[in-house]
Design a protein that fits this description.
- By secondary structure, the protein is α/β, with parallel strands linked by helices.
- The chain is 37% helix and 20% strand.
- The chain has helices at 23-31, 62-80, 91-100, 108-118, 186-201, 237-241, 243-251, 262-274, 335-341, 355-367, 371-394, 409-426, 428-433, 441-446, 448-453, and strands at 2-3, 6-7, 36-43, 49-56, 84-88, 123-127, 149-155, 159-166, 169-177, 209-214, 217-219, 222-225, 257-261, 279-284, 288-293, 399-403, 435-437.
- The protein has a five-stranded mixed beta sheet.
- Helix 10 (355-367) packs across helix 11 (371-394).
- It is globular.
């Protein structure tokens, strides 16, 4: 197989997507004859800088070089997150990246999104080796703290969960339906959060710490982008940014509170149950949600928004409606993947159904061992196996926990088994080092709100 003049090989092409060009596999082939050094650095809040060194091919591979640099920068932005990108050793390719990341450039969505999160202008800096920054990375110690009386709050898009946890044991938990995505007034979300925390607090003699798990992008405890504030006008941004810190003060003064992305909390729950770091949680639901616990069991402080990171280089890859980009993770590891593959096996889904309802139709067929429906899950398993060649370049992985609605039932079991089969056949080193699995009972017992409760250290 060949893409932009680079020969690459995969034996197990997804049965329903013969055009799939796995980015990670293509990188491996591209780098075999690449010898011109270049580097990318991504700067985020508080001067944190992630540095990635690589190589380019000779100038006769100009199109491949430009594609590689552009896709690599895109992947790094959505895995690490940042407001400034430094490029060194690839001036021609860097100029194309710089032009793309402008208000009216090809990557205008990414440009605007990063500016919004970090509240400062986004820029691409082309520089020499002397001006190129050094890495400045530290992991964030969070999670695994079970002593004392703790509140764990999980802010979902359709329900909110809260647990009262004493010395690691859940003494009370509840799940309440709420409608945060419909409210333009952020006092609705605030009041619901406070109500949940007060309920949990009433079940314990005191509150020593509060941990929160929520979808979105956070800087500290501030939700910079969060689906539960989807309809809240921007003029209320400062109110939203302090919502969790203010809620904690309603419970008591000086109670430590830590807020983390729900994907990271899922990874922490896995890390706690497995007693290991290097754990990635990948939830296949409405979109692709990813979290990661580093080798030391801590958080990296990265975005981990791999729903918008490229996985497929095919020119016929499906477009993501929100970002406008093609071949990004949300179209391969979510209910959208199931829906896009259904027509390939003649499964007609009623356009009037919601995406979640369409998924249920396919799941029911798979649970009845419908051969065509099972091909959909086998294809997603193939997507996952080949994409691990990409993810493992940037994340040290021992365990990959696959979660979410797509991974449930017979189809989910096939997805995992097909991924592991292909890893063993085509990527034996990855197969030996990474265990791809559904959460076991021990992991499920830890639970999202309990893992959230373990986030803060107690005040000394």
């Amino acid at each position: 197989m060949k893409y932009l003049g680079i020969e690459y090989n995969i034996k197990n092409v997804p049965v329903l997507d013969k055009e799939f060009v796995p980015f990670g596999v293509w990188i491996n082939a591209y780098l075999k004859k690449a010898d011109r050094p270049f580097s990318v650095a991504v700067e985020r809040e508080n001067g944190k800088i992630s540095v990635f060194d690589s190589f380019l091919r000779s100038e006769e591979f100009a199109e491949a070089n430009e594609r590689y640099v552009e896709r690599l920068v895109k992947f790094l932005l959505w895995s690490v997150g940042g407001w400034r990108v430094y490029l060194c050793g690839c001036d021609k390719e860097a100029a194309a990246v710089k032009a793309a990341y402008t208000a009216d450039g090809k990557r205008s969505f990414d440009y605007g999104f990063m500016q919004d999160v970090y509240e400062r202008p986004f820029e691409v800096v082309i520089c020499g080796r002397e001006e190129f920054p050094q890495a400045n990375e530290t992991t964030i110690a969070a999670g695994g703290h079970l002593e004392g009386c703790r509140i764990g709050f999980d802010a979902g898009g359709s329900d909110r969960k809260v647990s009262a946890v004493i010395d690691g044991k859940t003494v009370y938990s509840e799940e309440v339906v709420w409608f945060p995505k419909l409210s333009e007034d952020p006092t609705y979300q605030y009041n619901e959060i406070v109500t949940a925390m007060k309920t949990a607090a009433s079940k314990m003699p005191r509150v020593d710490a509060i941990g929160v798990s929520s979808a979105g992008v956070f800087i500290g405890n501030a939700p910079m982008v969060s689906s539960i504030f989807y309809k809240v006008p921007r003029e209320h941004r400062e109110y939203v940014k302090t919502v969790y810190d203010r809620a904690a003060k309603e419970i008591g003064e000086n109670i430590p509170i830590v807020v983390a992305n729900d994907g990271d909390v899922t990874a922490l729950a896995g890390s706690m149950s497995l007693n290991s770091g290097s754990v990635m949680g990948l939830a296949m639901g409405t979109s692709e949600a990813v979290g990661y616990a580093a080798p030391d069991g801590n958080l990296l402080g990265w975005f981990n928004e791999l729903a918008f990171a490229p996985v497929d280089l095919s020119e016929s890859a499906m477009q993501d409606e929100w970002s406008g980009d093609f071949g990004v993770g949300c179209k391969y590891f979510s209910q959208d993947a199931v829906i896009k593959l259904a027509p390939a096996v003649g499964i007609e889904l009623d356009p009037a159904l919601s995406p979640a309802e369409k998924l249920k139709v396919v799941q029911a067929l798979a649970n009845d061992n419908d051969a065509d429906a099972l091909k959909i899950y086998a294809s997603i398993g193939a997507y996952l196996a080949h994409t691990l060649a990409l993810y493992s370049r940037f994340y040290a992985l021992k365990y990959l926990l696959v979660l979410g609605r797509v991974a449930s039932g017979v189809g989910g079991d096939l997805l995992i088994s097909e991924c592991n089969r292909i890893l063993s056949e085509e990527y034996p080193e990855l197969a030996a080092g990474i265990q791809v699995m559904l959460p076991d009972e021990k992991t499920r017992r830890v639970g999202q709100s309990v893992a959230a409760a373990s986030l803060p250290e107690l005040n000394k």
